Every structure is written in C-alpha cells, then in structure tokens.
C-alpha cells in the first residue's frame, strides 16, 4: 500500500507534532510529580498512624515491633511489594522526623492538617507540606545531624537539587565542608550548578522504584536489549544442563539502605541444595563486581536461605568485545570441603563463558542483519 502524504505544508505538520510532543512531555512530568506528592503524603500519614497506635498500645517495649511486623504481612498480602517491614519503619521514621509541630500554623494556632487523613483531598492537603520527592526524604532520613538535615532540605528546595545532587552533596559532606569555608556564598553558588550525571530523565522519574512500588507496577525492564537477551539465553542454557537447576526468579529487585539493586537470575541447585545467584556484567570483570556479588550472597543467606539448605553461591558473568568470563564466588562458604564439592558439581566456568560468548555473537549478528 502506498504511503499516504499529508496535504498540509511540512512546517504546519511540524508545528502540530511538536506541540503534541511538548504537551505529552509536560503531562508526564506533571503526572510523575503528582504521584510522588500523593505517595509522600500517604507514607507520612501511614507513619503517623503507626506512631499514634504505638502511643495508644500496650505498655510493652516490643509492641511497635509486633505492630509493624503484622502490618507488613497484611499490607504486602493486600497491596503487594512496597509495604515490607523496612519500608514501614521508614514511614514511621519519616513522620517522627517531620512531625506536625514542624509545619506552619494557621492563624488560629491549630495545625491545618486533618486529625487522620483518609480521603484524597485530605492527603492532597498533606502533600503540599512535602515539596521534595519521596526518594529525597528517604535520603535525608539517613542524615542524623538535625541541623545538617535541615540544611540539605533547604538547599534542595532553594537550588532545585535533583535526588542525585542531594545524594552527592550528602555523600561529600557538603554541610561540614561549608561550615569550615570562609567563602560560603561561592560554595553555595557552585553547588547549585548540576553536574553531568545529576539530571534525572523523564523515563527514570516515571520508572523510579518507589513510584512503581506505590502503584504496584512490575519493574522488570533491563538496561539494554543486549543484556536482556543475554539473560534469557543464559537462563535457557543453565536449564538445558540438566534437572539440577530450578528457575527461581529474574531481575529480582532488592533494597539495601537507600540503594536499589537488581539481581539478574536466581536458581536453586537441587543436588547442592543451595541458591545460585547470577549477575551479568556487560564489560570487564573487576573487584567491585566481586564485592557486589558478596553483598548479594550475604543478603540471600540472611533473608532467602531456608532451613537445611547450604549457603548460596554466586556466578558472575562478564562480557566485552570478543571476550567472555565466568567466575564463581565461593569465598562465603564455611569450609574448603564444601567449596570443593561445589566446584565438582557446578558447571565448568569455561563452559559457561563459552556459552555466553556464543550467545552474544548470535544476538549481535541477528541485530545487524
């Protein structure tokens, strides 16, 4: 069928198209901000109800622990991920750090916030008190010095810092450095200028893990089509090696403190009775990769390992142009005998590296044809 041509001049079409593009981008930005504001206010309200329930609760030191534990189970069952124990403690901490007494008062001297926000209009009223995104408040919660936390919050608002800028300033102890500086004005002006990696794209704002959790949406996208295809090929390859490998999960997200991680593949090895954590790196193997894998293994050992199972083992897969490597992380095993058994039973590292290289070559060939 022949391509239909527009009767209107190109300039007229470009004007219409560009206007629609601008409209859609503005709407998506506004939607992300609106969701973030409602989410932040909702989490503050949840924190308030937890704290007030603790105050009315039985006079036991462990009442708050049990309350949060039970809420985490019930809310996760009802609303999915995003309401685990760590998240609820964060919401509780959010309310305790930004209580109602810190808000501006009305002329009557009473707080303008409702006693217990439950409707969307009441939540919206709370949202006006929190102009920063939820991820910014999560980062601010990690600052124990109250004056420093207030400084970072004020500067983030005044200078329009992104969450990455805020994180960078906190990590570099900007508050302590500016306190010692003789030219504070120059430092503040310099800090207001974003660096190349500070900007957050619209896609990142919409796919922020906090927003996805709040909306109960799945976040299983990969950083690149090549990485996504390689992960699928590797999963198929390991399953084809025999019935020892049982598939457990793919692109599983976990949060440690304020950092998000994404584990590419998780298997259970039936003969070894252990979890196998697989991490793919599109690039050369480095010490940081080994450190991150050990972080995953320690987390899996503490949170995912079942009674009677052996400690988890990691498989780090690295690939660059024409070269592929595979490394097992066995240093976390309690003894050398167990490590030797793992090496005997697990597939040879070179076998996996060769399969990785073949998969990469086949995928790239299909992409170029």
UniProtKB/TrEMBL annotation:
Residues 20-177 form the YhcG N-terminal domain. GO terms for molecular function: nucleic acid binding. It holds the Pfam family DUF1016_N. PANTHER family: NUCLEASE YHCG-RELATED (PTHR30547:SF5), UNCHARACTERIZED PROTEIN YHCG-RELATED (PTHR30547). This is Cytoplasmic protein. Residues 204-350 form the YhcG PDDEXK nuclease domain. It comes from Granulicella sibirica.
């Amino acid at each position: 069928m022949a391509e239909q041509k527009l009767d209107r001049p190109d300039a007229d079409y470009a004007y219409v198209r560009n206007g629609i593009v601008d409209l859609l981008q503005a709407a998506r930005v506004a939607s992300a901000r609106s969701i973030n504001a409602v989410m932040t206010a909702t989490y503050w309200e949840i924190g308030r109800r937890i704290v007030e329930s603790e105050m009315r609760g039985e006079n036991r030191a462990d009442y708050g622990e049990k309350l949060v534990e039970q809420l985490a189970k019930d809310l996760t069952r009802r609303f999915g991920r995003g309401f685990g124990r760590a998240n609820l403690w964060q919401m509780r901490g959010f309310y305790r750090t930004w209580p109602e007494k810190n808000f501006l008062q009305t002329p009557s001297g009473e707080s303008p916030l409702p006693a217990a926000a439950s409707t969307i209009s009441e939540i919206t009223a709370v949202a006006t008190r929190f102009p920063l995104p939820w991820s910014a408040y999560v980062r601010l919660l990690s600052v124990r010095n109250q004056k420093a936390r207030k400084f970072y919050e004020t500067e983030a608002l005044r200078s329009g810092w992104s969450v990455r800028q805020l994180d960078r300033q906190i990590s570099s102890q900007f508050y302590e450095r500016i306190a010692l500086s003789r030219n504070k004005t120059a430092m503040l002006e310099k800090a207001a200028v974003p660096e190349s990696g500070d900007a957050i794209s619209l896609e990142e704002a919409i796919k922020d893990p906090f927003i996805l959790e709040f909306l109960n949406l799945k976040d299983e996208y990969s950083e690149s089509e090549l990485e996504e295809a390689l992960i699928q090929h590797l999963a198929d390859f390991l399953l084809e090696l025999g019935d020892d490998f049982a598939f457990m999960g793919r692109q599983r997200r976990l949060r440690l403190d304020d950092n998000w991680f994404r584990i590419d593949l998780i298997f259970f090895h039936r003969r070894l009775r252990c979890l196998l954590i697989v991490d793919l790196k599109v690039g050369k193997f480095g010490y940081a990769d080994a450190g991150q894998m050990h972080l995953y293994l320690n987390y899996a050992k503490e949170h995912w390992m079942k009674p009677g199972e052996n400690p988890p083992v990691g498989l780090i897969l690295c690939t660059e142009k024409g070269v592929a490597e595979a490394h097992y992380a066995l240093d976390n095993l309690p003894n050398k005998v167990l490590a030797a058994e793992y090496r005997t039973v697990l597939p040879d590292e070179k076998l996996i590296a060769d399969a990785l290289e073949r998969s990469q070559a086949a995928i790239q060939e299909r992409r170029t044809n």
